[in-house]
Amino acid sequence: MSDRSDADRVTADDDGRDDEWRFGLDDVDENGVVGPEPTPIEPESVSTENALFVVLGALGTLAVLLSATL
């Protein structure tokens, strides 16, 4: 077990850093396997239909809140 943990350590000869771990705890799963890099989510353009539903939802929420207070 110590062979594997020592092999995963980066030495000063590799990167100029001394005694740094190659992977952080967030980079590996519970079995110690490094997962693939997640693909970034690219924003798309706003369509008129989606914007209309957001506005209708906001107006509907305001109508419900105002009717509850009256």
Account of the 3D structure:
By secondary structure, the protein is mainly α. It has a domain at 1-35. Helices cover 46% and strands 6% of the residues. It contains three helices and two strands. It has a two-stranded antiparallel ribbon with strand order 1-2. The termini are far apart. The model has no long low-confidence stretch (mean pLDDT 78). This is DUF7312 domain-containing protein. InterPro entries: DUF7312. Residues 1-45 are annotated as: Disordered.
**Unreliable sequence segments:** none
**Which whole number gives the mean pLDDT?**
78
Describe the global form.
elongated
Please estimate the helix content. Answer: 40-55%
Task: Give the CA-CA distance, first to last residue.
Answer: 69 Å
The biggest beta sheet is recorded as: 2 strands, antiparallel
Using only C-alpha atoms, the radius of gyration works out to: 26 Å
How many individual helices?
A: 3
Query: Spatial order of the strands in the main sheet?
Result: 1-2
**Beta-strand percentage range:** 5-15%
Order of helices and strands: HEHEH
Question: How many individual β-strands?
Answer: 2
Kindly name the structural category.
mainly alpha
Q: Could you state the oligomeric state of the chains shown? A: single chain
Protein name: DUF7312 domain-containing protein
Pfam families: DUF7312
